Amino acid sequence: MKVTTSPLQKITKSSAGRPPFKDMVWIPGGTFAMGSDNHYPEEAPVHKVKVNGFWIDRFPVTNANFRKFVKETGYITFAERPANPEDYPGAKPELLEPSSTVFVKPKQKVDKNNRYNWWIYIRGANWRHPEGPGSSIKDRDKHPVVHITYEDVEAYARWIGKDIPTEAQWELAARGGLEGTEFAWGDELHPGGRMMANTWQGEFPHENTRQDGYERTSGVGSFPPNGYGLYDTIGNVWEWTSDWYQEHKEIKKPSCCTVDNPRGGELERSFDPSMPDIKIPRKVIKGGSFLCAPSYCRRYRPAARMAQPIDTSTCHIGFRLLVRA
User: Fold this and answer.
1) Residue 2 lies in a domain
2) Which of 200, 253, 319, 324 is the least crowded, having the fewest Cβ atoms under 10 Å away?
């Protein structure tokens, strides 16, 4: 397994003091090569980014964590509320009911170009009922909370006193101190046949051989940590970042220069009303999920990124938070 060690690994935790919260890990600041030129176009070009040190959650926020927040505040998530008809003119009434998006595995091969062959908008699906009415999170306390919109993440962050990571902060942390490697652990997806993350094995979307032991989410910490001691930065669930989505190629500074502590999409182009093809603001999500497969979506890498509408929750998106130094 090829591993390229970054100088960032040589900085010890002792320089950061005590963690501000339980189960937080210090990520030393430094400069790293962000993005990838070898995969999806939205990841390119590779560009140098400088990030200050910060503390970040060792695990994604779990159902148990989120339940405590809801119990103390009475918070109702976006998916549990009916949508405002004024925000969705012309929408069918049934689509305004409290709902969320759930992956439903087809029984046979389907057209992979049509994601509606496996994504179903289900009334009553939410963080308490991940697969819809009749499902529950019983025995899933340690699984990452899902069906969470960006608004829900903001509410939880305010309550607990943490921040949402930028895309650059998240990617630096996910790389685990490695630079130039394909994955958070090296250049092989399954080094020595070992499963390193909760992803999809088999022919997506109708066949999952479950070589990693899981059909859907797994309890946090079920797979090896990265070099910084973080769990589940790859696979299991996608994670929200605070950056508005824009293409890396739209970065104002040329690739020869280092971008200092970037906050992506500062122009907020993702919801510029002059761009009619984009109706709803979008944030960057990172890390891939249990649905990422070699046969369909190779986004189980630190450089991978996707644009996610801020009002859309699914069964495979969660989050983790940080504290800036």
Assistant:
1) no
2) 253
